[in-house]
Design a protein that fits this description.
six-stranded mixed β-sheet
Amino acid sequence: MTKFLAISLTWAVFACDRPATHAPPPTVPVVDEAPQTSAGISWIEDDYAGALAAAKRENKPIVIDMWAEWCHTCLSMQHYVLEDKAFEPLADRFVWLSLDTEKEQNSAALAVYPVEFWPTFFILSPTDESVQARYVGAASVAQFREFLVQGEQGHLDAIADGGGLAQDDPLRLVRDGDRASIAGDYAAADTAYQQALDRAPANWARRPDVLVSQISARSKAERWGDCVDLGLSVSLETGNAASAADFLFWAGQCADKLPAKDERKLAMVTKAIERLDLLVNDQSALLSIDDRSDAMSIERAFIEQVGDLDSAKRLAQQQRAMLDKAAADAPDAHAASTYNWPRAEVYVYLGVGAELIADLEASEKAMPSNYDPPYRLAWVHLKLEQNDKALAAANRALERVYGPRRARVLSLLASIHEAGGDKAAALASHEQIVATYEALPEGQQNPASLAAAREALAKLAAK
C-alpha cells in the first residue's frame, strides 16, 4: 500500500506518550479575551490559568481548542465551523480556550492533555480539571454540538454527588474511553468505546466519531487485524461527515501492516474506494471544503493502490478546482491560508506546481509574520527543483517559526541542501534538528522523533 496523502486528523509533528497523571499547568497572568466570534464565543488565547480561573469563578466547563498554524484542519474548524451561529445558544455555557500547541508557554498544558493529532478538542471540569470529553479531528456543526453536550453532561455529572450519569450511559463510557486513550491504555479505550456503541441507539449522533476513536485505538495498539476487521464491518455506520474519511484512513493504515497474502488488504481497499466515492459525491454531506478535500486525497491514495491512475488524476483535478474556488471565496487571507497546503499537494501531484507560486507568495505577503506560507512555498519550489528559491523561502520560514515546528522547517532545509549537493549545510541542518528536539520542554518532547533525528544525523555524518 502507498502512504496516504492527507487526513483531517492532521498527523503529529511530535507524539505525546505521557504517563496518566501530571501536575496541573502552572499559574500565569491572565490576559484579555479575544473579540467575540460571529457565534458569540469569546476565546481566551494561550492562557490556561486565566481560563481555569474564569471557569472556577463561573462554574463552567472549559472547551480547549488545541491547534497550530500549520494545521489546515485547525484553520478550517476555526473559520468555517466554530463561527457558525448554531453555537450562539451555547456560547455562555462554557469558557473557551485556544492554545497554539507550538508555543512554549502552552507546553505545561500539553504535558497534561497530550495531543497526537490536530486539532484536538478537550472539555474539562473546572473543579478538578479532569477530561469530560475529547474530540479529535474535524467535526461538522452537528457533531461539535453533540461533543459540547457530552462535555456539559460530564461536568454536571461530576458535581451531581451520585445523581449524574449512570455507569452504563454511553456518554460516561465514551469519557472512560477517552481517558484511557489519553493514558495510553488502548485496550481499555477500545473496550469502553465498544460498550458505548453497544448501549447507544443505532442513530446516535456520536457513533461516527466514537468509531474513529475506536479504530485509532486498535491501530495505536498495533492490533492490525482487529483494526481492519472493524473497518470492513462498520464503515457504513460512520455518517456523512469527516469522520467517515478519518475512519477509512485508519483502516487503510492498518491494512498496510497486514501480510501481503491476507485477503483483507484488497477487500479493505475496495470497500474504502466505494465508501469514499459515495461520500465525495454526496453534495448533502456535512463536509467543509477542507473535509471534502481530505476525503478526495484519501480516496486518491486508495485508487492508486489498484493502479487506476487516470481516475486518481481526474479526482485530483476536481479537488484542485474546488480548492481554488474556496481560496478565492475566503473572507480574508488567514481563512484563505486554510487551503495553502491542500492546494500545494494537489498542484504538485498534477505536475503544475509552478501555477500556485503566485498565490503562495501573495499569502506570505498578506501574513508577513506567519511561518506557514513561506514553508509551503519552499516545498513547492523544491518539488520544482528551484533550489535557490526554495532555500530563500525556507530561511524566511525559519526566521518566523517556533516550537516543534522549527524541526520540520529545518528538515525541509536539509532536503533542499541535499538536493543542491551541499552536504555540509545539510549536516548542519540535521544537527539543528536534533538540538531543537533536545531543547523542547516536557509537553512538547517526543522521544521517537528525537531518536529518528539522531539516527538521520548519524547516517549523514557517516557518509
